[in-house]
Amino acid sequence: MATERMTRDQSRALTRARLIDAAAELFAEKGVNGASVEQIAERAGYSRGAFYGNFADKDDLVLALLEHRTRTEFDEVGAMNGDQEAFRAWHRGRAANVQAWLALRTELWLHALRDERLRAELADRELFARGAIAGGIDDALTRAGVRPPADLGFLALIAHALEDGLLIQRVINPEGVSDEVVLDAVDLLCRSWIALAQREG
């Protein structure tokens, strides 16, 4: 019975993951409002019933997608254990798909802006992402032997907002903006903050 239950659980997890991946593709292509439940289920290779067996509605799927994307990136970066070359390679890989990634992210923002409940959930996901960024900034400053020149949460907010803006510029002008622009910009920020902390110290 335990084996059957695990197999059933694994099957459900696979179905859910495929529906999330299909939704990510369709939301980037058509927008959240332009992609129907039927289209998402069909893209994933399942029926409408399979969709509702995993999600209450499309908004529930949007929340699951936000959670999945945030957690996946956090786990992938965490697995690098501070390896800067691996981190740069990860960014280069993401840059290859940045147009679809940014289209999806923008669609999720727009959808959440129109729904107070989703907006609150998006704020939680963004706070989680900024927490991860704050950890990276803290590590860089600690290695340099300085204290943060301002609240770490505020520094992470600056870096996170800069990342969003730079990725928009990367999509608009891929020939003029490098794959590693975010890393280069955050590195410059950290060196500036280190210099500021040393001067104030």
- Total number of beta strands: 0
Distance between the first and last residues' Cα: 64 Å
What's the CATH first level of the largest domain? Mainly Alpha
Structural class: mainly alpha
How many domains is the backbone divided into? 2
Mean pLDDT: 86
Cα gyration radius (Å): 20 Å
**How would the global form be characterised?**
elongated
Number of helical regions: 9
Name the CATH architecture of the largest domain: Orthogonal Bundle
Largest sheet: none
Question: Might you state the CATH topology name of the largest domain?
Answer: Tetracycline Repressor, domain 2
The sequence of SSEs as H and E is HHHHHHHHH
Classify the beta-strand content into a percent band: under 5%
Overall helicity: over 70%
Residue runs with pLDDT of under 50 for 5 or more positions: none
What does this structure look like?
With about 200 residues, the chain is mostly helical. The protein folds into 2 domains: about 1-55, Arc Repressor Mutant, subunit A; about 60-200, Orthogonal Bundle (Tetracycline Repressor, domain 2), CATH 1.10.357. The chain contains 9 helices and no strands. The chain has helices at about 1-30, 35-45, 50, 60-80, 85-95, 100-115, 115-145, 150-170, 180-200. Helix 4 (about 60-80) runs parallel beside helix 7, helix 6 (about 100-115) packs across helix 7 and helix 8 (about 150-170) runs antiparallel to helix 9. The radius of gyration is 20 Å and the shape is elongated.
